[in-house]
Input
Amino acid sequence: MCDDHDVAISAPPSSDAPRQRPTSAVSVLATLLDRSLDQMTEAAADVRLFDREAVRAASDVWDNNLFPLFWAACTSNEGERERRATAVLEWMAGFGERRRGWMTEQAAIAGHDIDALLPPARPYTPGRDYRGHVMAPQCRLTRRNADELGPDYDLATASVRHLRVERAGTRLTAFLQLVVERTFPVDGSAPPALLDVWLDGVTDVAFDLPGAGSQGVILDAGAGEIGMSLGSGGRLRATGGEYRLDDRSWHLSTAGRRADALTPPRTSRSGRPRRPPGGDLGPDAHAAAALLHHAMLELRSVRHAAHADHVPVLTLCRTFSGAGEAILAAGAQHGARRREAAFQDLIRTWAGQGGPRITRWLASVLRERAGRPDIIQTPRPPERTPPSLSVGTPPSATPSQAALVMTAWTAAHTDYRTKRPSTAQLQLALPPRTGDDSSAPWRLRTVSCDDPDAFRLRTDAFQGPGPLVQVGKPTDTCALDLHQGALLLRQRGRAKGSGCSALRPASAP
Output
């Protein structure tokens, strides 16, 4: 079992952060919500530096914490508000060290010290799955931890199933999934063991098919740098990383048996409550909560790269800007009637901040999720189409420039008895279209293809905007080249409508 199970937590705020002051639990809740919106705005402000993971992580916080926040806010009794808010903060912090670290960091940036509001963190213990088998922890990539893989898994015969290199603001990150051979006996029906590796601060990338996808991985986790050699000629270098074994048979390994001896048995009772704290909300407070919750789910959908270019991150963040403080103000109104009227006004404020397209979307959510289509007036749509957050645009020629935001390759494999073809995916930042204002923001576009016969990636592909060249015909071999070969994706056309047309970044929302 690895010697340091916990994941890396962001560094504490710098000395020029606001001075911490006596903290109100309900103010911390509002601050955390507003900080999440600020983080997502920063992550998407310039899609050439798009940080998809930051958007996903900040929105994911509110999946099961948003309705509890509204419940905490919806009382004019200050003592009751604090009691409720403290219970919600404790619930939120119970999701693990990463979540607790994020809460502490973001509150401190706004000048709040929440340590006094939270119970001491529980010591980490490995978990068990529904079968009672101990589960592999997520570990930092250190020399000691890497060496502990050796007795149970043979990296010399490992192969790459998936590689993703992605921009996170000014940094590069990578995710690598390796198929590894076990050195311990398992049932013949056991699925392959996978080693998931996350790298941060990537400094060097070289990956060419077919060589880099062939067998053989060398992992060198030195002090201050992690190096990985992949197959023939492939390599990755990074300043830090983590790994986790995705292996249902891990409990049978040497490390798994050690962990099993130290891990308490699985019981039906847990120290963490099964349900979040909360209670009934008034119809209009519930409608406001349902709107914001649905927006967070929409923002979180950027975790699917193919959908990320259809999520209007900046527009949604602008729509709900200042939501934390506004929810507290509405919930503090004396009397249910005034409180409900305040939440109606808040919903209308959100609609005004979002613009006509978002207003139509908000109206559809109010109708379908809250049964309240009467709160806001729906602007007449330009044409009779269902409300949508994405904007359809006509095809256009391939831009002459692009900035690479993310690229991924997946090997052909069998997944739960289903054969999956090899795939490649690119996420590009494209300049404003011809005829647009030259100061218009760059736009995000995701393109993909099946069965690429060439995929080449070098670190220079992420150096910023560069020449984008696409050649070929839809029924013939076609290729997309960025930064003069730093990124090359080639696919052979097999039928009408396949091949080059699959690669063309024709439009974006």
